[in-house]
Amino acid sequence: MISFGNGLRIFFVFLTLIGVLWKNPPTEVFLEDSFCSVTWSHPFGCDRLGRDVYSLFSYGTISTLIFSLPSRLFTLAFSSLICLFQYSFPFTGRWIFTPISSVFVSVPSLLIALLTVYALGQESYVLIVAILLGDWAFSYETLQSKIRETDGSGFVLASSFFGASRVNIFQNHIFPSAFPVLKVLFTTGLPGVVMTLALFSYLGVSAGSDWFGPGLGEQISFARDYVYSAPFALAMPIVGIVGLVAALSVKKNDSIICIYFNIIYFEYRNFCTRYRQILSFSGIWNARKSHF
């Protein structure tokens, strides 16, 4: 039986998808429809510029979700690559990555993101880079604790004893052990990314505004001055932010986000298996050629 919380999440997703399928992106203004009343064609009315509030809500929610997923994935991928490099060359951790991560952890991530946007501009990719620089250190420190725990296990010591390289050990033992931690970091970090994107949008830095219209935060900033004339124009973007945070906070293993992350992991494992088979086949072929 569906719980009350899951029912609200399903209703929120359904409401957003219906708006995207029904309405066009709110990238144009219609001053003749300014502050229009609630009708069948405008279920939540219009804002001061005549844009449909339902369309603003739906496309603002979708744009926030579209940019939050790759931002979190790139952050975890960047942290994992740093962990791989540090595990392959241990001296880099003591002299390079650990001091740098300590500095990034001590500085508020939002401040780092704001400085990145100020330095690089307001392009869409800059938001992803800003979120990556603001959050990578926390993911790196969490992964390092799991790597230290796994590095002293018996199968890692046995692999090292039989001559396996550190890259091979990381790929076959360390990373699979750290994958559950990556799933937790992915699911628990998405709500924070949503709030960061909403704050950037409130400050006027929106992601994909040319295609999807203004972001949820920008809608709040624009509608707060005429809340009595169009209350839904202020309430709906707040519902969008809260709904996204609630929908992405699902921590069960059968959630859509976890299933998507598992698919990526299994594809990675299949690629590594095929790659090792190709290497072993080429080694056998070269050995046979040298024998004859």
From TrEMBL:
Keyword Transport annotated: yes
CC annotations in GO: plasma membrane
Any one Pfam family match given in the protein's UniProt record, by short name: BPD_transp_1
Residues annotated as domain ABC transmembrane type-1: 61-249
Positions of transmembrane segments: 7-24, 57-84, 96-119, 125-143, 181-205, 226-248
Membrane association type: Multi-pass membrane protein
CDD domains the UniProt entry points to: TM_PBP2 (cd06261)
Coiled-coil boundaries: none
Localization: Cell membrane
Protein name: ABC transporter, permease protein
Organism for this UniProt entry: Leptospira interrogans serovar Pyrogenes str. L0374
